[in-house]
Amino acid sequence: MLNEFDCPSCKHSLVRRKNRYGYFWGCRNYPDCQMILPDEQGKPGKRRQKPQSTGETCPECGQGERIERTIRKGQRRGQTFIGCSRFPACTYTEFV
């Protein structure tokens, strides 16, 4: 099966692969390019976003930063919340 999806990093083609956790998309130019994307119904999904800092200190511990994150699993999957950068030492959370 020939796919028509290009690697966003190096423009080689992406290949659908399977591991013990399920399907994913990897670059054909591996190991030179280590781009990996999740599988969404037989097509490459979006890359996971890195947590974004709000620039404010944590009100609970006073040491960490408040960071905006997205829930990846469970019933609240995709919901955005703000948590402490020192997790798991500080368990401060606030839903947006």
From TrEMBL:
<dbReference type="GO" id="GO:0003916">
    <property type="term" value="F:DNA topoisomerase activity"/>
</dbReference>
<dbReference type="GO" id="GO:0005694">
    <property type="term" value="C:chromosome"/>
</dbReference>
<protein>
    <recommendedName>
        <fullName>DNA topoisomerase type IA zn finger domain-containing protein</fullName>
    </recommendedName>
</protein>
<feature type="domain" description="DNA topoisomerase type IA zn finger">
    <location>
        <begin position="6"/>
        <end position="40"/>
    </location>
</feature>
<dbReference type="Pfam" id="PF01396">
    <property type="entry name" value="Zn_ribbon_Top1"/>
</dbReference>
<dbReference type="InterPro" id="IPR013498">
    <property type="entry name" value="Topo_IA_Znf"/>
</dbReference>
<dbReference type="GO" id="GO:0006265">
    <property type="term" value="P:DNA topological change"/>
</dbReference>
<feature type="region of interest" description="Disordered">
    <location>
        <begin position="38"/>
        <end position="62"/>
    </location>
</feature>
<dbReference type="GO" id="GO:0003677">
    <property type="term" value="F:DNA binding"/>
</dbReference>
<feature type="domain" description="DNA topoisomerase type IA zn finger">
    <location>
        <begin position="55"/>
        <end position="95"/>
    </location>
</feature>
